[in-house]
Every structure is written in C-alpha cells, then in structure tokens.
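Hi Q.,

Before the meeting this afternoon, I wanted you to have the pyridoxal-5'-phosphate prediction in hand. No need to reply - just skim if you have a minute. The sequence and ligand are here:
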Amino acid sequence: MTDIAEMRKSIETIKASLPAGVTLVAATKTVPASVINEAIDAGITDIGENRPEELCEKYPLLKKEGVRFHLIGALQTRKVKSIIDKVDMIQSLDRITLANEIEKRAREVDRVIDCLIEINLGKEEGKSGLWPEDALDFYNCLQNYPHIRIRGVMAVPPVGKTEEYYNILYKIYADILKKSKNGDIIDIISVGMSADYKEAVALGSNMVRVGSAIFGKRQYSL
Ligand SMILES: *Cc1c(COP(=O)(O)O)cnc(C)c1O
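Predicted structure with the ligand bound:
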C-alpha cells in the first residue's frame, strides 16, 4: 500500500530537486488508479504506463485535465489501436512495423502522436530498443510519417557504467537534432529512474521516469 502522505512528500522532494525544464513522469505500473489520482492532485502532470492493457483499464478512472499520458513499455503492434486515442506520447518506438501501425492508427483517429526512439544502449538481449548504431537510419526512415512526430530519444540503460551509456544516448540525440528539419522539435532525452534520476539529469536527461521513489516498492501481486 502506498502511504499517501509519504507519496506527496516524495513528489515534492523529487520535484524540488529537478532543474527547470526537466519533466517528471510518474511510472505507474501496478499502481491503482485511485493512488495515481492522488499523485495528480499532488502535482504530477505526466503519467507513464508500461502495458497497454493496464493503461486501458485505468484510463477511464484517471483524472485527465492537464495530464499527459505516456506509453513507456514495450509495445506490441496489435496493441497500438487500443491506446492510440489515449496517449500523448509513445516512448518505446523501436521498429518500422510499429511505426507503420502507429501511423495507420493515428491517421484513423486524426491525431499526430509524439514519439521517442527507444535505444537499447547496452545491446541487452530481451530488452526493447534499437541498437545505438541503427538509431539515425531509423530516424531518417521516419521522415515520411505525417502522424508521427519524433521528439527525441528514450532508454533504460543497463545497471552500472551509467556515464558511458548516457554519453552514447546524448550523442544519438545530438545526431538526430542535426539531421532534423526546420520546424521539427527535437527536445527530449528520456532517461533516469528512481535509482539514478539525479545523475541522469546531471548528464543531460530532461525527462525522468520515476516509479518506486514516488509510490514505494511495487506489489506485483496486484
Ligand atoms: C518501471 C519503469 C520505470 C521506473 O522505475 P523505478 O525504478 O520504479 O523508478 C521507468 N521506466 C520504465 C520503462 C519502467 O518500466
């Protein structure tokens, strides 16, 4: 159980520690909608869910005014349709088949969806994300998707060697920025979680995704 008073204090502390311009996304997997609404009351403006099913389940119960919804977990192509009218940003875009589906479904509902290119910085097996050397080609391929607006990069780096990985991510971001056209807004580096968000921000992140430091240890039995 999340202690609401404690949660409010955590949100306050984390927000106070973040420089202006850094977005705090609350990572809400396994957190009940009622608790997420308390977090929204306490000043959370960005909600990150991992699983489309969980997002769809909680979505009708969640406060929405001034709140942005992010999909931050691996996304199966066949699940895109269920979330396309709910999310403001998909942070886990990592393959063309997924881009094709997002484009198709976003067109159907007449939306342009902000997306981040997810990078598998450590080339870890079983983890989603493109390999670092493929990121720029992938970005170039996405130029002709009118319903997808690439805003930057996202990663869940391997544990340890943080600085080295963050530098790789920053370099990819800079390369994409350089390749972007007039009018594109490439402005987001989404990296950093409960254990390392301060370090992440010090190394260039401007969007952190924090779960357990806000809500306490996750209860997977939920
Ligand atoms: C769970 C999760 C987080 C937050 O993790 P914590 O360690 O609880 O802060 C961030 N990003 C993604 C993609 C996650 O799945």
